[in-house]
Design a protein that fits this description.
Blueprint lengths: L5 E3 L6 E3 L3 H13 L3 H13 L3 H5 L6 E3 L4 E6 L5 E5 L2 H13 L9 E2 L3 E2 L2 H10 L4 H14 L4 H9 L8 H16 L1
Antiparallel strand pairs: 1-2, 3-4, 4-5, 6-7
Helix pairs in contact: 2-4, 2-6
Length: 185
């Protein structure tokens, strides 16, 4: 089921691994105990969406899209490509808890003390507390899509933003929800 996949990162000489099932379960359990709603929301979104750090840091409140029974994030890649990523029910709940706990009007989703958008180093520090990095969480998300038999074209569409390739977001959302929900059991 949750196997470790080794992926050689382009342009770098290091190998990064997707988290295996035991590490995913341990991470989810530690997040359940995390008192910081900010930390919990950040790690959960990275795990359940596979977004890049710079994409996460640039998210604004207006980027949360509510469709019929689906909540999605409007994510803009570094190259300016816009894509919609469905939110897992657990990620949606945690994000909502975090936003409800904020008493500021800052437009950015992730801020430090309600004033300034969170920075890259701060974000990396949060991930280091859980002994994971963003590439591991991104690869874990992609590995799960592969395990769920999504085609490389569908995965590419979700991860890199070709809307014509991602034909059925509802189906993808349901598969992600069912898969991640089963990991907790």
């Amino acid at each position: 089921m949750w196997e470790e996949y080794s992926i050689n990162l382009t342009g770098k000489n290091k190998i990064s691994l997707a988290l295996n099932k035991d590490r995913v379960i341990a991470l989810i359990q530690s997040l359940e105990q995390e008192p910081s709603l900010l930390n919990k929301a950040i790690v959960t979104l990275l795990l359940y969406t596979g977004v890049r750090l710079d994409e996460l840091l640039s998210l604004k409140r207006k980027d949360i899209a509510k469709c019929t029974h689906l909540i999605a994030l409007r994510v803009v890649s570094p190259k300016g490509v816009v894509r919609m990523i469905p939110l897992h029910t657990n990620a949606s709940r945690i994000l909502n808890d975090y936003l409800n706990g904020r008493d500021d009007s800052n437009e950015y989703l992730f801020v430090k003390n309600g004033k300034k958008a969170l920075g890259l180093r701060q974000l990396q520090g949060i991930l280091a507390m859980y002994q994971v990095n963003s590439q591991q969480l991104r690869q874990t998300f992609v590995s799960e899509l592969i395990r769920l038999n999504y085609t490389m074209l569908e995965i590419s569409g979700l991860m890199y933003g070709n809307e014509a390739i991602v034909k059925n977001l509802d189906s993808l959302y349901n598969d992600i929800y069912n898969s991640m929900h089963a990991v907790k059991k």
